[in-house]
Design goal:
Blueprint (H helix, E strand, L loop, with lengths): L10 H13 L10 E2 L6 E5 L24 E2 L2 E2 L3 E2 L2 E4 L4 E5 L19 E6 L10 E6 L9 H10 L8 E4 L8 E2 L3 E6 L9 E7 L2 E15 L5 E4 L19 E3 L12 E14 L5 E14 L1 E2 L8
Length: 307
């Protein structure tokens, strides 16, 4: 008998072991298990995480995805039946043994009387398997994730970030802009900084496909104005001279003298939009507002006249 996992025979035991291994992958470091050659989508398996800092606010997380979803190796199954509650992580129905095994039974894994020993039965039969077994759990079994909860787990694994700020004048010693001179703002585009990013992943046995992209970046310039940019922006080059940025720029009308550190505080808020689809036609949208900050020093040009 196996302990700590379900005591099953042949193919079902192998499938269960594979499921337990993939379920232990950390969401912060997703690894492609398969790339669809037609779509380029990276498929991974992840565990649903706890609360993730920097991923709020989330809006409209549950449209079409409020009912738990249970699947056994890709096939939908009822989340409860006379055989018990279905566990997506263990891929079987769990029913407390009645009566429970004697204290000396190895099924307790030396933890008697803590926890519960469950009968475990697969929803479907597999060739060469009995399709039943036993497992000890310290707490109650999981009852399946909702598609919306699985979507939040997949989005957390996408590592979406605030803008990597590029700006002229730069936030470094000796870099000072001038009143009336063009200010260029940009971010380095990429799947985690601007999108688009498409990811297909599974959490708790629920497969979700999510598409993430930045809808806009709102730059708050520190002088009471803001600039909304729908593109990553244009990197400044010396040849542009005093020409305005073609897609994301600003001009200050006053110096930054008297501000904290004599500089304007600048923030860039990336408004991410993530559309997801899941099993049974479920779908929804998650929005993330992620902020990065910098400072800009602005002086005043003076003409020097000599005789």
């Amino acid at each position: 008998m196996l302990t700590r996992t379900v005591t099953l025979i042949s193919l079902f035991a192998a499938l269960l072991a594979g499921s337990a291994l993939t379920a232990s992958a950390q969401v912060s470091s997703p690894v492609c298990e398969r790339i669809d050659s037609r779509t380029g989508i990276c498929e991974i398996t992840i565990r649903p995480p706890g609360p993730t800092p920097g991923i709020e606010p989330i809006s409209n997380p549950d449209p079409g995805g409020s009912a738990p979803s249970c699947t056994e190796y890709g096939q939908p199954v009822p989340c409860s039946s006379p055989r018990g509650i279905y566990s997506n992580s263990l891929q079987c129905y769990l029913q407390p043994m009645n009566p429970q095994p004697p204290p000396s039974s190895p099924l307790w894994e030396g933890s008697y009387p803590a926890g519960t020993v469950y009968n475990c039965s697969a929803a479907f039969s597999y060739p060469g398997t009995i399709g039943g077994g036993a497992v000890w759990l310290a707490g109650p079994p999981d009852a399946g994730l909702t598609p919306a909860a699985a979507a939040r787990a997949v989005v957390a694994s996408m590592d979406l970030r605030a803008a990597e700020i590029g700006i002229v004048p730069e936030d470094k010693p000796g870099s000072i802009g001038a009143v009336g001179a063009p200010v260029y703002m940009w971010t380095t585009p990429g799947p985690t900084t601007f999108g688009p990013q498409v990811l297909s992943g599974s959490a708790g046995g629920v497969t979700i496909t999510a598409t993430a992209k930045v809808d806009k970046i709102v730059w708050t310039m520190g002088d009471g104005t803001s600039v909304t940019c729908r593109t990553p922006g244009t990197v400044y080059q010396d040849r542009y001279g005093f020409n305005d940025s073609p897609d994301c720029g600003h001009r200050y009308t006053q110096t930054s003298a008297g501000k904290t550190n004599n500089a304007y505080p600048v923030s860039a808020t990336s408004f991410w939009v993530v559309d997801w689809t899941g099993p049974g036609g479920s779908s929804g949208r998650i929005t993330l507002d992620l902020v990065s900050r910098t400072n800009v020093m602005v002086g005043e040009l003076q003409a020097l006249v000599t005789n």
